[in-house]
């Protein structure tokens, strides 16, 4: 290989490596690893450092629950609107009663399932699809 091609080959390899390391998917769903791991660049201050998901990319059931929250109910589950204790401490710390949780129906589940929306008194909304093991800030 002539010496003048070596820098071009190296540059090409570096670009390929960068693409592989950062990912180059055409898009991601709310439940995909790509959306879980990428904090939003235009996220509000309360979501700083968290993974985010636009409300429009939530599962349809979560969007329906979000609409019920906006309307103030009625909610299908007795525990909807209950205080969320944040015992896992995945959300910013606030006094008890700051957060409230709402069930997001899981198709095929016989019980409430693992999906929830959690709201904060400051207008924050968080989504979890793994029963509080992780959260994404919902961007509206």
TrEMBL record:
Signal peptide segment: 1-27
Pfam families from the UniProt entry: Ribonuclease
Assigned keywords, A-Z: Hydrolase, Nuclease, Signal
InterPro entries: N1-like (IPR000026), Ribonuclease/ribotoxin (IPR016191)
Keyword Nuclease on entry: yes
Keyword Chloroplast attributed: no
The protein's name in its UniProt record: Ribonuclease N
Organism annotation: Streptomyces achromogenes
